[in-house]
Write a structure and sequence with these properties.
The chain is of the alpha/beta class. It is built from eight helices and nine strands. The chain has a domain at 2-182: Alpha-Beta Barrel (TIM Barrel). It has helices at 2-7, 10-27, 39-45, 76-82, 95-107, 122-125, 142-151, 157-171, and strands spanning 31-33, 63-67, 112-113, 188-192, 197-198, 217-218, 221-227, 230-234, 244-245. A four-stranded antiparallel beta sheet has the order 4-7-8-9. The chain is globular. It binds zinc ion (ZN). The site of zinc ion (ZN) has 2 residues, from loops.
């Protein structure tokens, strides 16, 4: 498994990112670089990426980027220990890359955190390296992983709100999202920052039934989710750590509206 990060190396990633940026700058095209994983790319993007509102001239391309909770948490020692469950693209890299991603998130080179939710089955993952598919489920643990980093002092809760909500809405020109104010959608969650609960494959909602964070003690688990002012999910002592739905799936909320770039 250690060969995966060597094979999909950071210099190749940097060349691809540089080409995409060059094309965006030449054409004035909107560019969002997905799943940033290497310190090399993050260092090079400093001064090139910014939130759309901070772009100076009308002609300049808006260039933004993101990283993922798994790349802010795992390193080569986890890959060694856990194996193909942590095989993904771009790969989990090294502790030094993870540290640069944290630095550039705080400093503003990286605007958003995404999930790259790619749920492959454990049967497929059991094929071993290199046959096992790349990708892991991530959407349902993403917030608790980041709020646990906040609890441990790596960042603030306000940072997590910006990286996972406010900035995301701004980067994609989403209407009514990313802020709590009159006229915006009533989307709110309540979280428990005090009670650690271990991630367990048995409590996963995804049909694949496993999590790369299995065994990790996390805080920040959502207790209530409200969409458009309507409670849709709760996690209480009665429901246990998996929680339960309060409405029929698909009955609440509307498609997200994203405006084009002028
Ligand atoms: Zn992806």
């Amino acid at each position: 498994m250690a060969a995966h990060a060597e094979w999909r190396d950071d210099v190749t990633a940097l060349l691809a990112t540089q080409l995409a940026v060059e094309l965006a700058q030449a054409s004035g095209h909107r560019l969002h670089v997905l799943h940033l994983t290497s310190g090399l790319e993050a260092d090079w993007l400093e001064g090139i990426t910014s939130l759309p509102d901070d772009v100076k001239s009308d002609e300049a391309a808006i260039i933004t980027t993101e990283t993922l909770p798994q790349h802010l948490t795992f390193d080569e020692t986890d890959v060694e220990r856990v194996g193909t469950r942590l095989k993904m693209n771009p790969p989990i890299r090294y502790a030094k890359d993870r540290d640069r991603l944290w630095y550039h998130l705080k400093q503003g080179t990286i605007q958003c955190i995404a999930t790259d939710h790619a749920p492959h089955t454990l049967e497929a993952k059991a094929a071993g390296f290199p046959t096992a598919p790349s990708g892991m489920p991530g959407v349902e643990t993403s917030l608790a992983v980041m709020l646990t980093h906040a609890k441990n002092g790596s960042c603030s809760i306000e940072d997590v709100v910006r990286w996972m909500s406010t900035n995301v809405a701004e980067c994609y020109n989403m209407i009514g999202k990313g802020r709590l104010e009159e006229g915006a959608d009533g989307d709110v969650i309540l979280v428990d920052m005090d009670t650690p609960v271990a991630v367990d494959d048995a409590h996963v909602w995804s049909r694949v039934g496993w999590s790369p964070f299995h065994g990790h003690e996390l805080v920040g688990w959502t207790q209530v989710t409200v969409v458009n002012g309507i409670p849709v999910f709760e996690r209480t002592e009665a429901t246990g750590p998996k929680g339960r739905l309060l409405v029929e799936p698909g009955s609440v909320g509307q498609p997200i509206v994203m405006m084009p770039w002028s």
